[in-house]
Amino acid sequence: MNAPLSDREKALMGMGESRLRKEDARFIQGKGNYVDDIKMPGMLHMDIVRAPVAHARIVRINKEAALKIPGVIAVLTADDLKPLKLHWMPTLAGDVQAVLADAKVHFQMQEVAVVIAEDRYAAADGVEAVEVEYEELQAVVDPFDALLPDAPVLREDLVGKTEGAHGKRKHHNHIFNWQAGDKEATDAAFASAAVTVQQDMLYPRVHPCPLETCGCVASFDPIRGELTTWITSQAPHVVRTVVSMLSGIPESKVRIISPDIGGGFGNKVPIYPGYVCAIVASIVLGRPVKWVEDRIENLSSTGFARDYHMTGELAATADGKILALRTHVTADHGAFDACADPSKFPAGMFHICSGSYDIAAAHCSVDGVYTNKAPGGVAYRCSFRVTEAVYLIERMVDVLAQKLGMDKAEIRSKNFIKREQFPYKSAFGFEYDSGDYQTALDQVLEAVDYKGLRAEQAAKRADPDCPTLMGIGLVSFTEVVGAGPSKICDILGVGMFDSCEIRVHPTGSAIARMGTISQGQAHQTTYAQIIATELGISSEVIQVEEGDTHTAPYGLGTYGSRSTPVAGAAIAMAARKIHAKAKTIAAHLMEVSEADLEWEIDRFKVKGNDAKFKTMTDIAWAAYHQPPAGLEPGLEATYYYDPPNFTFPFGIYLCVVDIDKATGETKIRRFYALDDCGTRINPMVIEGQIHGGLTEGFAVAMGQLLSFDKQGNIQGNSLMDYFLPTAVETPMWETDFTVTPSPHHPIGAKGVAESPHVGSIPTFTSAMVDAFAHLGVTHFNMPHTSYRVWQQLKASGIVG
Amino acid sequence: MEVVLDKTYPVAAGVDAAWVILANMHELATCMPGAQITEDIDATHFKGAVKVKVGPAVAAFAGTIEILTLDASTRTLKMMGKGADKGGSSASMELTANLVEAEGGLSTLVGHAEVIVNGKFAQFGGRMMTSVSDMILAQFADVFSQKAAVQQAAMAPAEAAPVAADAAAADASGSAPATDAAAPAAARAVPVAPIVAQEFNALTFAWQMIKNFFAGLFGRKT
């Protein structure tokens, strides 16, 4: 009567199984439901008039011609929003941002006016017809120029304010200075060190460029006083709170729905002017209003990433033991400080920049600066500023190795935090939960025959007729994800916990609702697997719902690899509450003491008696039908999980490139990625996440760039210029793993989707620079396009 | 987006005749592909318009021109032009043009231009800016040279440059194609078709680039 244990376990399709993605059935049939799929009776369309110049005064806006166009209903400018006090709005970083340019334009493509019309065409015609007269001002696009004493004042609204949201402002275009670590100890270590190295590097401005751009449909019901908004948001609950605060509508009457989302990568965390204008328009007009930006608008005006001008320094002993790290960053935040970081961290988790290494003293200092560029600074497929931090330390370790003539692998081994040192407190104050870097490194070096590769490289360098330069990149990164403990992490004052509500129905199926929202991460698939393993219910009968604030418990959303570390823990904890109640019911049903029961895959059985058991299905029925006296009927639980710490996934990546000496064209010959994300919930989904992250890392390292000319014109804001790799360009990925569970997480999982992005980018640069290392080159900046590599070949005297 | 251009072009006329064209804003404007003067504000300020065609889209820049220097002794013109298009592009150009004598009684036009383009044109056309400017200027110089030649021919029998210049100026202030009849003096000397530059068409330009590219390929082989 009892199926074998392994069969029962298999039937659950729980943790560790490569369960196929449940969401794909609708996506591959074109049955997804994205914001732009939403159509409502009487729905109006909004389009945005944008500034053609980066810095200017608005002399005059003339709406007349636009209002005469058939179908145009309204044109709104900052002056129209002023009576509602909505012409400016707070940012997540403690600054304010113009919703519509108020007397002054601060960046090219800034929102100047919106046109609301009966259809999308009329809205576009209306935008063309709005006449705006500008008086151009000198644009400032370089953050170093912005800090010159006589630089133009960019933010006239802040004139005279010497205190910002994060302390003193030292210049009229300065936002904040943020420091971490011990400056004195670090300076002392540098003063007496045998060897020091220093390297400047730019992590250029890039954009997450999700396939689906940002947009919303706002629908205000004037009779009931209720506002419903479908929106491309990675954090719908936060949007609800902000919308309620800005509009004065009680939060209970604001319903925010994130439907299917076509990729976010941090770009869909902030609250954009377009959303606010569509909501205002719907409230004013009493009709639903749709706004969906196009690709150029997405690349030009919504959350960019990076733009960190970094200087790294390492102090070390003559034999390569790192003693201290010192770094300074000039961070270009654009026209408004709209970074999406936990409130107390204006540079995010940049202080993870001591990496995987045991460094006794460290100090970092970050200066945020205003320029005439779009605001943003989002975490593009990474935890807040972790990509920048990992890039810095990994580049610096290579630079030091080069100075000392040491091998990249050897210097890393020498400086790793050792397995027995965990939990490890870093010089910046992080407590790394777990890690085993050396084992992972050894596994990778063995798999790729590292010695063989180095021998091949030496032979090629010795051969003047070799048509290619060969480079080997190696990176051993540690990420900090799962923000975060609410004692230090909050967004607008709301702690960064996350939540789960599970209801087990009488017949033994279940629904789970979450505070997170998938943008492609397969939550529907993997969350159900956690519940399946915890509760012994097949994942096939567990529904997962997210994104509707009317039904889901409050959560801070999905970004910074926080879904598994935080929400995943909330699921396990909610399931365990149900599990505990189920045990009470099972004991009651079998008339034994709870102490006599043991859990086995999908049932409670009397210890030592396989024949006497109750499955979770039996228990669910009983919970609604005959609960024990004094026990509340039903079988459901909600859990708000406030993580005690971050999680620290890590990995070892190795890349081999061959660069054509004549053209600079680069072939990624091999990319080997070993990831350790702790407990693995669904290996197939992990593989997919890693492929996606590596591909986006490849995109950033080898081609993506948002560049600007001196006048602040954004160059290359369409997919003609902005590099989005397809299957044609993307190299082959080889993946591998080790498993070092997180000791503080209920199921030991650490999060994985961002590691491959964070880890791969410095690996590509490491490989590219390595190809030139024998010529004394220690660093060159991304992106490593053929043209730029060719310039490097020229600079190194390889091409005439 | 800023482009600095330093160019010299041969002119098929002597410096005196060429200076007549250079010193007359109406004449000069019609050398520019797609350009015209729409209003004389005063002796040194004008309103003008330039049309540039990119496939089916036409960008119409309207703006102002200010003559900063007009020095007959050194035959130097310095001017500043600024314009904006309703579609969200704007441009400015500071131009210094100077005529120097060349062999055979001809002259050379030496130009230095600093062009700044903002908005959509700068966003999308950035990489083509230098080539487009080159081509526009080459066309400009070509028309300029033709006009100067006609002017020279007209001046030869009259032997009175100022008169011819006045005539040209008076005639060109008329509406529509300003040089319909060129100067009466010129018409007397040389039966010419109206010399006016065609508006710049980027599709034609692209075709020209492709032709040049292939011409370059085959040129190298022979």
Distance between the termini of chain B: 39 Å
Query: Which bin fits the share of residues in helices of chain A?
Result: 25-40%
Over all CA atoms, what is the radius of gyration of chain B? 18 Å
Biggest sheet character of chain A:
7 strands, mixed
Low-confidence stretches of chain B: 159-192
Average residue-wise pLDDT of chain A: 96
Broad shape of chain A: globular
Number of helices of chain A: 20
The total strand number of chain B stands at 8
How far apart the termini of chain A lie comes to 80 Å
How large a portion of the residues of chain B is in β-strands, by DSSP E? 35-45%
Radius of gyration of chain A: 28 Å
Look at the structure and give the CATH class of chain B.
Answer: Alpha Beta
Level-2 CATH architecture of chain B: 2-Layer Sandwich
Topology-level CATH name of chain B: Alpha-D-Glucose-1,6-Bisphosphate, Chain A, domain 4
Major sheet summary line of chain B: 8 strands, mixed
The order of strands across the largest sheet of chain A is 3-7-1-16-13-14-15
Could you give a short description of this structure?
The complex is a heterodimer of chains A (800) and B (222). Chain A has 800 residues and is α+β, with helices and mostly antiparallel strands.
